[in-house]
Amino acid sequence: MKQVISCQLNGKATELLVDTRQSLLEALRGHGLTGTKEGCCVGECGACTVLIDDVPINACIALAVRAEGTSIRTIEGEAVNGQLSAVQEAYVDAGAVQCGFCTPGLVMKTTAFVEDLNRDDSIDRDSLTREDIRREHAGNLCRCTGYQTIVDAAVNAVNAVKS
Ligand code: FES
Ligand code: FES
Where is the 2Fe-2S ferredoxin-type domain (predicted)? Predict the structure, then answer.
């Protein structure tokens, strides 16, 4: 059965015609937003991470109809007027991108994390360790980098938020 859902998609009011059995990942990619990657499709790799109402989710295991009335952010919305976001810059600067398949999901995960830090004064950012930041990204797998540069990027993004 088909259904039209209304949402904010990367800041723009959007209507998507979706199948009620379709995942959000399928709906987004079918809408041309192929920056969000399809990896495992069972919620284990994080390649499909998008933000719904600023919370990271695995779009492969979320029904598209769940997005009715929400604000969805994908990697396509992060650079503005050709200017990379601070988190994207941190990934480039750290050399954290190899094949790039995991990168959109990781960038969205880091983005949600640094925005949470910005919003929530109760989190003592100075006490965050590299291990804490690594743990925040535990649901996102990378087959290329060995993770060190990804954690470097995330640490730099968190520190950029501090300053
Ligand atoms: S493709 Fe969604 S978690 Fe792997
Ligand atoms: S850079 Fe290739 S999977 Fe992460």
Answer: 3-78
Which residue in this structure is represented by tokens 């990804």? 150
For residue 7, the CA-to-ligand 2 centroid distance in Å is: 30
Q: Looking at the CA of residue 47, tell me the nearest atom of ligand 2.
A: 3
Strand pairing report for 2-9 and 71-73:
parallel
Per-residue pLDDT in tens (0 to 9) along the chain, 163 residues: 999 999 999 999 999 999 999 999 999 999 999 999 999 999 999 999 999 999 999 999 999 999 999 999 999 999 999 999 999 999 999 999 999 999 999 999 999 999 999 998 888 878 899 999 999 999 999 999 999 999 999 999 998 866 5
Q: From 65, 120, 64, 47, select the one nearest 56 (Cα to Cα).
A: 47
Ligand 1 pocket, residues with Cβ under 6 angstroms: 38-41, 43-48, 58, 60
